[in-house]
Specification:
Blueprint lengths: L4 H16 L7 H8 L3 H13 L3 E4 L5 E4 L8 H7 L24 H16 L3 H5 L2 H15 L16
Antiparallel strand pairs: 1-2
């Protein structure tokens, strides 16, 4: 299984939403700034996440996105599946037709790996992740980076001295 950018960004954005939803709906532009994910890509992901029932949107001033249920009830696997990400490591997509319409030698190995990955990601919730010390540390660093004033350095050339 190769988790693509879509799955990684969806989990990252949902984790950011979870971390910042204490003060009401979170704007996608804020997630985009903190996580360096393009706003248009986030809009596509959140349309799928909304359709998957994981987030709700609020329109108007002060609007944005919120989790549709408590973070402890949303598994990482739910997020990945909502954005149509594949968690299958088999070459045949689990169909068992990998070699001349029959299973290949390693079909069962890859099927079991897929099941283990699915089980692992189903057992981890967004709530668990936000309580992780490393996740908290990264979130704090990201907040500090956004709040720190940027300093521009200008290079000034010295005029040539007259002889």
């Amino acid at each position: 299984m190769k988790l693509t950018t879509k799955g990684r960004y969806a989990v990252t954005a949902m984790l950011d939403l979870t971390l910042h939803s204490g003060n009401g709906p979170v704007k996608l532009a804020e997630i985009s700034g903190r996580q360096e994910i393009s706003l248009s890509y986030l809009e596509q992901l959140f349309a799928r996440l909304r359709k998957g029932g994981l987030v709700v949107s609020t329109r108007g001033p002060g609007g944005g996105y919120s989790l549709s249920r408590p973070a402890d009830e949303i598994a990482v696997a739910d997020v990945i599946l909502a954005v149509d990400e594949n968690m299958d490591t088999t070459r045949c997509g689990g169909m068992g037709n990998c070699q001349n319409d029959l299973p290949c030698l390693t079909h069962e190995l890859w099927t079991e790996l897929s099941n283990q990955i699915r089980s692992f990601l189903s057992d981890i919730t967004l709530g668990q992740l936000v309580r992780n010390a490393n996740v908290k540390q990264v979130a704090e660093r990201q907040e500090q980076e956004l709040q720190a004033p940027s300093i521009e350095v200008a290079v000034v050339e010295k005029p040539a001295e007259a002889s």
